[in-house]
Automatic annotation (TrEMBL):
Database matches in PANTHER family: DNA-BIDING PHAGE PROTEIN, TRACRIPTIONAL REGULATORY PROTEIN-RELATED-RELATED
Keyword field: DNA-binding
Protein origin, superkingdom: Bacteria
Protein name (database record): Helix-turn-helix transcriptional regulator
DNA-binding found in the keyword field: yes
Matches recorded under Pfam families: HTH_3 (PF01381)
Domain HTH cro/C1-type: 5-59
Amino acid sequence: MENKLEEIRKQHGMNQEELAAVLEVSRQTIGSLENGRYNPSILLAFKIARYFHMHIEDIFIYKEDYNDDDKA
């Protein structure tokens, strides 16, 4: 899953530590989210979206891989 968290955070003039404090998670969690090493729980995704007054889909982009073999 891709995300725009780093871009959005920077647009709001925040560093990782500030965002982590607001969301009550570690700075490492924010870094891992931004680098794509970690996908948020649905609860955390909602908290992030609500904080930035955005839809989850505007921050986290799910791209499903379709394979020709999967077609029925």
